[in-house]
Amino acid sequence: MSSISIKNIRKEFPSKSFSKNKIIALDNVSFDVGEGEIFGLLGPNGAGKTTLIKILLGITYPTEGEAKLFDKDIKDVRSKKFVGYLPENHKFPGYMKGEQVLHYFGMLSGMKNKDVKKKTDEFLKLVEMDKWRKTKIKKYSKGMMQRLGLAQSMLNDPKLIFLDEPTDGVDPIGRKQIRDVLLNLKSLGKTIFLNSHLLSEIELICDRVAILNQGQLIKEGSVYDITTSSNSYNFVTSEISDDVVNTLLNNFKATLNSKTNFTCIVNNLKDLNDIIDFLRTKNVLIENVSKEKNSLESMFINLIEQTKN
Ligand SMILES: Nc1ncnc2c1ncn2[C@@H]1O[C@H](COP(=O)(O)OP(=O)(O)OP(=O)(O)O)[C@@H](O)[C@H]1O
Ligand SMILES: [Mg+2]
Hints:
Elements: E1 2-13, E2 23-34, E3 38-42, H1 49-56, E4 64-69, E5 72-73, E6 83-86, H2 98-108, H3 113-126, H4 142-154, E7 160-164, H5 172-187, E8 191-195, H6 199-205, E9 208-213, E10 216-222, H7 223-227, E11 232-237, H8 242-251, E12 255-258, E13 261-265, H9 269-281, E14 286-291, H10 296-308
Parallel strand pairs: 3-8, 3-9, 6-7, 7-8
Antiparallel strand pairs: 1-2, 1-4, 4-5, 9-10, 11-13, 11-14, 12-13
Helix pairs in contact: 2-3, 3-4
The chain binds adenosine-5'-triphosphate and magnesium ion.
The site of magnesium ion has 3 residues, from helix 1.
């Protein structure tokens, strides 16, 4: 069963000026998120990421299309039972202490008093905020606020957690702590749907991603497939003689990095093996052949640039 199933979602907002043109925040977006995945929703500012999360949570309604959480339509209030949410730029009242915030949200979500207490203890420890539980949150740093927000989103033991920019404004050590918490939640079988501009982080923890641009889904797939989608292969070999170098450059369109390292773009596996056969007939020893990996960030920038043209 999918945790999230999104079909042909469109969202229009009325234009901000007097123009008749509507803002199309989401345009025919469809994809699924599997159970137990960490799924990243990426896209430049204004791409429609927060709007999509808000639709899935029933905070705003789609103009067209439908979506399900664990096979329950998002219009069905029971779909909320499985869900935790950390909003973008959340604000808790500054006069409350960390533990009071969790108590308040726990009671709001219908938990029993004793369960709230137990979960508050458990999650404050998990996000390493236990020693700040009695401090008023107006004294918290941004990273502490995010970690408290994360604890809040887990309080009702959700199967699916939506996190809108969970590491926004958090320093590298705090970000690592948040990543570890998310991986821990994944190991407990939770599904995490997160939205972030920090692509190096997404690359470290997400199983799959979807990329939105101007309301449209422009790419969806596993992080591995997206970052290795080029057909460029790198070879590490024993030293190559000049005549072998010439053939590689002329017949195989290679790019030479050194006498023992070159890169080739191939169309298929047969082309790749032709190069290996050629090298072996010339007694070149092959140490390593690997598909070149791009960073998620460079793939993202390329994709967004391509859609501008
Ligand atoms: N309530 C609203 N009324 C009118 N337009 C809105 C509303 N909410 C969002 N929009 C517009 O919808 C588009 C998508 O906005 P959204 O907040 O979903 O983007 P985002 O991908 O989350 O961006 P960011 O990365 O900056 O958080 C934008 O053009 C935005 O101005
Ligand atoms: Mg947003």
